[in-house]
Write a structure and sequence with these properties.
138 residues, alpha/beta, 6-stranded mixed β-sheet, 4 helices, 36% helix
């Protein structure tokens, strides 16, 4: 299990986009490697999800081999890797707005949590401690 809280980065620079790409690739890699894995990717607002993360997801996943492309329902991508022993196993990557959808993530299984633009998440302590924190305590 892991928890990653993204360091501040600038969306205005190419470096900023690389940082967001890297976080997405980290989460997607976990999904493709581990059957049953649940990655949740939180952005400060729904607008940031729509304008930054969704287009990058589309671009990255367009290069995914056809037999590994995920099924998409809303902001949830469900993966099946044909190399997994369990042919019925899936994993998923869910994108959510910390401002509007944090409480909807409460109680859901989470193996990897990525919070992007953490400095802009108004309710960061609540999201980390109250919504997800209990899942990462041994």
């Amino acid at each position: 299990m892991g928890i990653e809280v993204a360091p501040p980065d600038s969306r205005r620079s190419e470096v900023g986009y690389c940082a967001v790409d890297g976080k997405i690739l980290f989460g997607l890699g976990r999904c493709l490697k581990n059957p049953g894995h649940e990655t949740r990717y939180g952005a400060p607002t729904g607008k940031q999800c729509a304008e930054i993360v969704r287009p990058l997801m589309k671009q990255i996943l367009s290069r995914c081999p056809k037999d590994m492309r995920p099924a998409k329902a809303g902001d949830r991508w469900t993966f099946h890797n044909p190399s997994w022993e369990d042919r019925q196993a899936t994993s998923s990557f869910t994108l959510f707005s910390c401002k509007d959808e944090a409480d909807q993530q409460r109680g859901l299984a989470t193996d990897t949590l990525i919070l992007d633009e953490a400095r802009d998440i108004v309710n960061l302590a609540y999201v980390v401690n109250d919504v997800f924190g209990w899942q990462f305590v041994d």
